[in-house]
Amino acid sequence: MRESLMWLKNAQIYGMILSYKSGGEAMKRRRVAVTISLPPEIAKDYEKIAEQEAKNKSQLFRDMFSLYREKTLEREFYDLQRYGARMARGKGILTEKDVERIVFEGR
Fold first, then answer.
1. DSSP alpha helices (H): ranges in the chain?
2. What tens digit of pLDDT does each residue of 67-107 get?
3. Which of 49, 72, 74, 94 falls between 20 and 30 A from 17, CA-CA?
4. 56: which residues sit within 8 A by CB, 6+ positions away?
5. Where are the domains of the chain?
């Protein structure tokens, strides 16, 4: 038992990531390394932004990806909203009263 504690201490000193469940089974990784290539100017800007934001490059990428996903979903929502409005206008549905009439006329 003492030897395994010493090994754990050494692993922590050398920055090893330990991920084991009880029972000795390895856990699934919570992160996957991804390699991207950027033109030098963008890479320089990327590093500068990471430094200004006080984030490491991985965290900056995660934040940028989340924002991209959010904006993409927002754009899809507005596209669907415009499509629905166009279809409604085509059917003569112009006001909320028109919508209520259609919803309640079959009840």
1. 2-13, 40-53, 57-90, 96-105
2. 999 999 999 999 999 999 999 999 899 999 998 988 898 77
3. 49
4. 50
5. 2-76
